[in-house]
Structures are given as structure tokens and as C-alpha cells.
Amino acid sequence: MVRERASRTLFYPHPPYGRDWNPLYHLSHLCDTFIFVDLLRNGDQENRRRIRQELQNIHTRTPVGNGLACAGPVEDVNLGQMWFENGVPGRGLGNQPYQILSDEAARMRAQEGWGLVANLTRTIGDIRRPLKVLYLRAGGVTAYLRLFHAQRCAPRAICFRQAGPTGREFTDRNGLFARAVHAQPERAKTDYLLAWDECPDFQGWTWNRHFMSFHCWHAKDRTTPDYLGAWLPVTGLVRRGHCGVSEGFTCTFDNPNSRRKVVLVKGRLQPGNVIEGDEAVVIPQQLDGAGWHGDLHRIVLHIDRNRRRRRPHTDFVRDLKSPLSTILEQITAICEQRGIHAVASIGIGFEDEAPALRQWLSQNGTPLKLTIYCPTDGDFLSLAGMLH
What we know:
Elements: H1 2-5, E1 9-13, H2 22-26, E2 33-37, H3 45-56, E3 68-70, E4 75-77, H4 79-84, H5 96-109, E5 114-124, E6 127-137, H6 140-147, E7 157-159, H7 168-171, H8 176-182, E8 192-196, E9 209-213, E10 235-239, E11 250-254, E12 261-266, E13 280-284, E14 297-302, E15 314-318, H9 324-338, E16 342-345, H10 354-361, E17 369-374, H11 377-387
Parallel strand pairs: 1-2, 1-7, 2-6, 7-8, 12-17, 13-14, 13-16, 14-15, 16-17
Antiparallel strand pairs: 3-5, 4-5, 5-6, 8-10, 9-10, 11-12
């Protein structure tokens, strides 16, 4: 199964103990298979039961609610069979893989390894995307060697969310994992790495073009180091060999059945580049005092309800980590109340939610024009590809 789906797979070694389901509702437009590989603290049945429960109740575990739901029973995976039906891994990487694989085989004999598989549905507007999740209790390096290197294929994306104080075994360019990733044939190279933009460990990797940032990658859990706080604003995709979208490039989309128009602009929304005729801006809380023109109405996306300050020409929308359809409903209500017809906005919602924007475009009402500023290529292309 893995080989057939590799080109649409995200591989996530050592996620934070079943508490980071962000890829499922940020990246469903790029991947439909998600492999989480976690050694956990031990392989006991309590962990297995907890992860199974997390997957069964995934609609209560993320900000998108029923937009991500389990579509059937969560089933067990025969990890031993999966491990040993995929050929011989480690070829061409020296003797190191064989010791790691030997240690893993010992764990398998002790019945410490297990796996779960779940079918999920990601619903956005009128689009339903079937997703498959594999959650494996195993070592990340071992899993990559057996599932991908042995079959000379590669996942479309690899997530290094935990590549910080304890993640050097994955990010070190001279380490076994990095050598295995780079050793894949050119036709089967991974497209994206998901990591911290400023992570110094990626020197020497050939994935070096910043492609997408995630302003709402929710990371608040008991395993998150204190210095990361509750949000990871520097988490992003880096891509290999991507030519890029020119700064300032503009694309306009309209619908013959409605008067609405969506304009995509490659660049950041700043006071100096608001298009003439825009009557309001949708901005995050930290940009609220950035020197916007006095007549420009501000719609502020906020996280902390207690930090709101009432003042003229300002409305508040809660919040940054809501689904796109919810934020658009709130913006529409404000525009109808204030008589606003043209709005400029930062990127809102989650990165896989272009179908919700397309659905909004087909409806009547104010605002008549929504200009979205996309700071990265990935933000721009994710929306443009679905609006065509």
C-alpha cells in the first residue's frame, strides 16, 4: 500500500505523542496518506488504546470540528508483516542500518511494536477528501528504511516538527536518516520538508526554498518545549527545485453567477501596498497598530479575547485558528453591517481550504471584492489551483 501511495504521503517521525494532528487539516490538498511513527514511552496497550480513541474522536480534537472525521473503525496493522514484506532496506548505506534494524527486530519479537490504520474524511465546503492515517509504534529511522528506502520510493513530504533539541538523528546531514533520504533515486525524491524555517540543522540539505508558512500550526501540548510557546509561526514547508512566483504577481477570479471577485496577490499585506478602493483590512492582532490609513476600517483577528480594545473603525473576529468558512461568515456580517464592499486580507483559515473560498465566491452579498495577500508561493498556489 505504501509504495502505491508514496507520491501523496506525508511521513511524520516522532510526533508529540498523538497530540499533533495539524498535517491532516493543513496539508490535505497535498497529501492523502499520513504516516505517524512514534516510539512513545513504551509499547503498552494503554498507548495503543489512547491513540485509537484519538483517531475515532478526531472531530473533537482539531479546530475544524466535523470538517475532519473518522469514516469507519480504527483497525490494527500487522507491523511485523509490513516490516518484512518490503525487501532489504539499508542497501548502500554501510553497516549502521543493520544494527538499527536488528534492534527493531528484537522489539518486534518482544511484541512491543504495533500499528493502527484509520480512514478519515476531510470536508471543506462542497469537497470531501478521503484520507488514510497509519500510526505506527516504531522507530522513525527504521520505518523510513523499511517503508521507503527498501522499495526505492519516497514520501511526498517529511515532517520534522520535533526536529529540535531531540531531533538531530533526523536533521543531521551526515546522519543515517538524511543519507537515506538523499540516496533515493531522482525520480522518487521527496518534494517537501516541513520544519522550522530557521532550524540550523538543515545546512547541506538540498531542500532549501521556503515554500509555505503555517501561521496557525497549533502546538500547545505537554510535550512542547516552553520556548516554543503555544504557536509555531516559523513552521513552514521548504521545497526542492521550485522556481517560485514573482513578488507582486496578481491573479483575479470571478464567478458569472455572482458579483463577487477574489484577487490573489503574491506578497505581504502592509499599509503601503493596500490597493486603492479597498475600504477595510483583515489583519492579525500584532499588525493592528502598524500605521494603517485613518479611514481604513480594521477587522482584527485576535487570539486573546482580553486584549481587545474598543476604538473607532475597528471590529474583532475570533480567531486566527478558525476554519476559513467561519472567518468568511464573520467578515461578511461585518461588511454588511458597515456597508463595506472591498476588503484586503492576510491569508486566513487553513492552507487546504481553497474549496471554501471557491464556495464563498459563488455566493451573493458583500463584500464584492476580497483581496488576499499571500506571502509565500505555497499560499498563493494552494488558493489559485483550486479557484481555476
